[in-house]
Amino acid sequence: MQTIEKEQGQQQADVDPSASVIELLRVLAGELSHRTDTDAARTTMQAINKAIRPGVSINRRTPQVPRHLKDDFEQVFAHIPEELSGVSSALAAARPFLPWKADDSSGEGYYEGGADIGRSYAEGNMCCPLIGPKNSLIHS
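-> structure tokens emitted (140 positions)
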């Protein structure tokens, strides 16, 4: 068992995290390109395409999943629909490099510090800041 884990660790060390994360973003933009009838999809796709311009590299963040959400995280990966197989594959390749965090009201995410977003939401949701002005993999 340790040999397999050691080999997997070596394989991850050989993979360029920037390439995996950028490929994930390309795939997400591709999926959104089929849904440009909504402003949110169009705006997000444009932001992704702008962020992954040639030569871009990712900011190194510590890959993690909040301890209390690890089981739920595994369930999400096990239930991605077949029609999103491209997203699933790209997400699996980038997964070892993604810094997931609880999507709470700590002031580091989408909510103002101390915002009342509800306990079940604060304790049961995650986000991975891929593109943004701070604490994200790609600065925008």
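The first helix runs from residue 2 to 14.
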